[in-house]
Amino acid sequence: MASTFPPQVLVLDKGLVAEFGSPGDLLSKPTGIFTQMVNDTGEATAKFLKGVAAGNVSKSRFVVGVLFSTASSLSSRWTCPSR
Length: 83
Hints:
Elements: E1 9-13, E2 16-21, H1 23-27, H2 33-39, H3 43-53, E3 66-69, E4 76-79
Antiparallel strand pairs: 1-2, 3-4
């Protein structure tokens, strides 16, 4: 029997752990780095990602991407590998 773990997000800033927790917990922080990176993806994508974190969107409908933050700013990019 395979065990499942709730998803966790690790946000690094300048090589140091800045935030760690579930997507929902991190998105509950309006000024958090993870929240800012999600919001930087654009209104429609941010709404979708927040829906996933809240459990309102089936996780089987998307491929998990990776958010990157540059060391000196909160500029971000969303990459999603093709299936």
